[in-house]
Each structure stands twice: as C-alpha cells, then as structure tokens.
C-alpha cells in the first residue's frame, strides 16, 4: 500500500505562535520577560522546545547554561499543552489534500518530532486526528527523525509498505529522513523555512497544497 507521511509543525500546521508563547512563559518565569518574537523567531520555534530555550539563553548571554534549559524544558511542554491551539492554524488546503490522497487510495500518516501526547492533543483540538491512519512522535519509538526507522515504522502502523512511501516536510530533518529511508521527499515552500528548502534538492517543492496530489502520483504512482 502506498503511503504519504506528513511532518506536523511547519508542514501541516503553523504552530509557531503557541510554541513561542510557551517558551516566553519560561523566560518570564526566569524574570527575563518575552525574549522571542513571532516576526523573527518562528523558524526556530518549529525546531522544537529546546531550540527556543537555547536561543533565549543565548540572548541572555547564557548560551552554555544547559542545566537551565533541561530544567525548563518540561515547564515549556506543560505551558504549551495548556494553550496548544490558541494561535495554531492548518495551512490552506492541507486537509483537502489529505482527503484527496485518501480518496485516491493512499494511506496517510504523521511522523513528527513533537512528543506524541502533544501531537495527539493538538490534532484532536483541530478536529483532524481521525483523518490519519497512524501518528508517531518523538517519544513513540526508541529513535526519532532523521533516523529512517521512525518513518518506516510510521508507514507500517498506517498499513503501508515502507518502500512505497513519500515524506512531506519542511526542513532538512524531513529531507534527510526520507533520503535515509530511500523514499522521495516533498518539501513545502510556504513555511518559515520555505525560501531555503529548494537548496536541499528534494524530489519536489510545493507552493500550495493544491499541488500535492499530482506530485504524489508522479513520484510514487
């Protein structure tokens, strides 16, 4: 069975606003105020909680303070869980493309480096969890992207064949995961890193989800 596997943050949905808010809650708790801004830091938000904490600590002149980053990471996750869908929006056409792929006979799944619990909460709040046959997160397996087994096991859980799959993502991590698994990657050109993804030379770059079903048919039949 052919399977299309999606990344979540920055690919299916712009989650940066809620992620930045959770990180800033940590910095306020430190007495530093809001250190991250949506207009400049949305890209780092989509790289995860530790990346945001590390950037803030760099701005405080404490780039090497890993102990504080470790201490505040679970605080950030809880703050994020409490307000996970305040600013988050699905990208235009994303779920229409997922529905079309399902109608065309593809399995569809999500492989994210967000903790699985948080990914499930978010997708339930957005009302789209049921559209996917499988979901794996950063802590679902003993490995995570860019390890190819994260992608392969996601495909298996969706009822698909790992050699007949495709990864849709927005970062070098997604591209490298697909490459390691021996399957094509399609990167989105509309996320925070959209201007740089073409340099990674994926099999395709899309500017809108309207393009995805046709690209998938071309790449994996």
From TrEMBL:
This protein's UniProt keywords: Hydrolase
InterPro entries given in the database record: HAD-like_hydrolase_sf, HAD-like_sf, HAD-SF_hydro_IA, HAD_sf, PGP-like_dom2
Reactions this protein catalyses: 2-phosphoglycolate + H2O = glycolate + phosphate
EC number: 3.1.3.18
Pfam assignment, any one: Hydrolase
Family note: Belongs to the HAD-like hydrolase superfamily. CbbY/CbbZ/Gph/YieH family.
UniProt-recorded name of the protein: phosphoglycolate phosphatase
Organism: Roseovarius mucosus
Lineage per the UniProt record: Bacteria, Pseudomonadati, Pseudomonadota, Alphaproteobacteria, Rhodobacterales
Gene: gph
